[in-house]
């Protein structure tokens, strides 16, 4: 028996009942955004055939803030608040990657305690970032409870960061050679309390979100990225690991204290939206394991490299030891001149691998600063992933990738 | 450094006449002398196991009237190669700022090449979609990441005309 096209079968059925219908193939173009609850600050130009997406043209650049150009006009220290703006909810990582690159050029060693504190801040930030991502995915799928839960739980971690760094949103915590403040017993207790709270909540998260049949229907087998495609398109972070590639910068090229900590990298084979969500959920659990280890094993010591510590005037140093161990930097620290050279650093940010490429010509300003953020590398992945899927799945692919427009624009 | 990697570096030096700098066992720089053999070198690296491009960076050197293009290449499938970031660099002149695109070899170069074209005006021959990316549609003037593009700066102290 030869298979007939679907519409011919339908026409025959209709003809048997004495009715007829005309099938008109509809092709068209649709603009999603650039101010849209489902796209943020981005225009997605969708070419449709029926409700199948034929091609997607991403019109990014609505929040472009030219970090790379502005960096040529600022001192290395003055750049810190600038580079952490693009991913404002993941600012510790943005800051950390830049500082690691600058430290490589400067050739500064970082004390052990500062390395642990960097990992501590980074993991707290990762949990907050993943909860944000899950919350945004929920609201894309029309699941308002998930959105409120994500942002409510995030608040717990943001408060810890606030207590540690003094800033609520843009935490300029990491500086060349160390970190700005020491951890206190109160923050440790707060974190342990937050971990036990979040563990209970993760079970609830699974019940309300991942076992929810309507969410599963929207995410399962949607936007499937095979392992080969993930490698070819250069996907990053949780999206890459959901496609079965074992790659995490924390394991491949350990920075901070990650080589001394015990944790696992969740890897899924499915490569669909649900797997990408589950990778994030499991990473939250792993991050909490890391936090527990850091609180238990953090070594005593200084939080700034001796080379810079010696430059602090003695009166200020006395204040440092007597009060909160908060570093007030000397004025000339702001305009150091690194030697000629270049460095590329990578860190595992909340959304994936973040790389900084800094070229120094010996002046107090970088000659060229290249910032390769995870969302920037997801532009091509998103474009290719949308081809051939249904229009209704556009937002679930978009949400499950955890794409953040300002981070891609930089 | 493994034997295979040593043979790769030897290949690059003898067969393609590339200049190879080994910073440490995680960072390797390969300077391609002629942009025409860029694709061959990239093909050789891909066959070896480097499978994606992390970034495409353009650097402007106005006093030498040339632009440098850096591809940062690494691997996902091979865990040993994943530890290495290989910088593949070449230079183009102001007069002829064009370069064969590596899109056909590394698909992940799509975003980086498009941005480098927009910001520095380097044409990547063979790129399927070489258009504006981040800038406004009505943007005019020099390419923004060239050093000749100056940002208007405002001082911290604004001089106000004294009123009497």
Automatic annotation (TrEMBL), chain A:
<dbReference type="InterPro" id="IPR001135">
    <property type="entry name" value="NADH_Q_OxRdtase_suD"/>
</dbReference>
<dbReference type="Pfam" id="PF00346">
    <property type="entry name" value="Complex1_49kDa"/>
</dbReference>
<dbReference type="GO" id="GO:0051287">
    <property type="term" value="F:NAD binding"/>
</dbReference>
<protein>
    <submittedName>
        <fullName>NADH-ubiquinone oxidoreductase chain D</fullName>
    </submittedName>
</protein>
<dbReference type="GO" id="GO:0016651">
    <property type="term" value="F:oxidoreductase activity, acting on NAD(P)H"/>
</dbReference>
<dbReference type="GO" id="GO:0048038">
    <property type="term" value="F:quinone binding"/>
</dbReference>
<keyword id="KW-0830">Ubiquinone</keyword>
<feature type="domain" description="NADH-quinone oxidoreductase subunit D">
    <location>
        <begin position="141"/>
        <end position="410"/>
    </location>
</feature>
<dbReference type="InterPro" id="IPR022885">
    <property type="entry name" value="NDH1_su_D/H"/>
</dbReference>
TrEMBL record, chain B:
<dbReference type="InterPro" id="IPR010218">
    <property type="entry name" value="NADH_DH_suC"/>
</dbReference>
<dbReference type="InterPro" id="IPR001268">
    <property type="entry name" value="NADH_UbQ_OxRdtase_30kDa_su"/>
</dbReference>
<dbReference type="GO" id="GO:0008137">
    <property type="term" value="F:NADH dehydrogenase (ubiquinone) activity"/>
</dbReference>
<protein>
    <submittedName>
        <fullName>NADH-ubiquinone oxidoreductase chain C</fullName>
    </submittedName>
</protein>
<dbReference type="GO" id="GO:0016651">
    <property type="term" value="F:oxidoreductase activity, acting on NAD(P)H"/>
</dbReference>
<keyword id="KW-0830">Ubiquinone</keyword>
<dbReference type="Pfam" id="PF00329">
    <property type="entry name" value="Complex1_30kDa"/>
</dbReference>
<feature type="domain" description="NADH:ubiquinone oxidoreductase 30kDa subunit">
    <location>
        <begin position="34"/>
        <end position="152"/>
    </location>
</feature>
């Amino acid at each position: 028996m030869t298979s007939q096209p679907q519409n011919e079968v339908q026409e025959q059925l209709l003809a048997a009942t004495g009715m007829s219908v005309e099938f008109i193939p509809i092709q068209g173009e649709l603009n999603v955004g650039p101010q849209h609850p489902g796209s943020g600050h981005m225009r997605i130009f969708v070419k449709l055939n029926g409700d199948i997406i034929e091609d997607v043209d991403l019109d990014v650049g609505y929040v472009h803030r030219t970090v790379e150009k502005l960096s040529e006009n600022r001192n290395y220290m003055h750049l810190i608040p600038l580079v952490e703006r693009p991913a404002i909810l993941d600012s510790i990582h943005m800051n950390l990657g830049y500082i690691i690159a600058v430290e490589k050029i400067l050739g500064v060693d970082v004390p052990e305690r500062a390395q642990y504190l960097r990992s501590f801040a980074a993991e707290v930030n990762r949990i907050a970032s993943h909860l944000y991502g899950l919350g945004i995915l929920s609201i894309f799928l029309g699941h308002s409870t998930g959105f409120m839960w994500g942002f409510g739980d995030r608040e717990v971690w943001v408060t810890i960061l606030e207590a540690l760094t003094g800033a609520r949103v843009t935490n300029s915590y990491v500086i060349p050679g160390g970190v700005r403040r020491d951890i206190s017993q109160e923050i440790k207790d707060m974190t342990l309390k937050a971990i036990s709270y979040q563990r209970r909540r993760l079970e609830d998260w699974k019940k309300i979100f991942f076992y929810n049949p309507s969410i599963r229907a929207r995410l399962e087998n949607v936007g499937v990225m095979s392992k080969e495609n993930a490698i070819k398109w250069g996907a990053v972070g949780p999206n890459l690991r959901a496609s079965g590639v074992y790659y995490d910068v924390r394991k491949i090229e350990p920075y901070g204290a990650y080589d001394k900590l015990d944790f696992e990298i969740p890897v899924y084979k499915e490569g669909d939206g649900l797997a990408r969500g589950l990778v994030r959920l499991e990473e939250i659990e792993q991050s909490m394991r890391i936090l527990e280890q850091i609180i238990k094993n953090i070594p005593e010591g200084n939080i700034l490299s001796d080379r810079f510590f010696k430059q602090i005037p003695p009166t200020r140093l006395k204040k440092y030891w007597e009060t909160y161990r908060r570093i007030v930097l000397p004025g000339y620290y702001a305009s150091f001149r690194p030697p000629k050279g270049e460095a590329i650093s990578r860190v595992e940010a909340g959304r994936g691998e973040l790389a900084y490429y800094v070229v120094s010509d010996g002046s107090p300003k970088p000659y060229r600063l290249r910032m390769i953020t995870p969302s920037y590398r997801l532009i091509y992945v998103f474009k290719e992933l949308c081809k051939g899927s249904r229009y209704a799945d556009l937002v679930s692919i978009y949400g499950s990738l955890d794409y953040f427009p300002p981070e891609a624009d930089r | 450094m493994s034997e295979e990697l040593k043979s790769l570096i030897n290949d690059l030096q003898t067969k393609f006449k590339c200049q190879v700098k080994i910073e440490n066992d995680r960072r390797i720089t390969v300077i391609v002398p002629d942009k025409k053999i860029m694709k061959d070198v990239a093909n050789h690296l891909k066959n070896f196991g480097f499978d994606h491009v992390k970034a495409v960076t353009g650097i402007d050197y106005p006093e030498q009237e040339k632009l440098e293009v850096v591809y940062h290449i690494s691997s996902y499938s091979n865990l040993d190669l994943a530890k290495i970031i290989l910088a593949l660099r070449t230079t183009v002149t102001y007069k002829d700022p064009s370069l064969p695109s590596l899109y056909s070899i590394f698909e992940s170069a799509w975003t980086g090449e498009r941005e480098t074209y927009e910001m520095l005006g380097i044409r990547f021959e063979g790129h399927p979609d070489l258009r504006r990316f981040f800038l406004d549609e009505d943007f005019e003037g020099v390419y923004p990441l060239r050093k000749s593009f100056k940002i208007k700066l405002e001082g911290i102290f604004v001089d106000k005309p004294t009123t009497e």
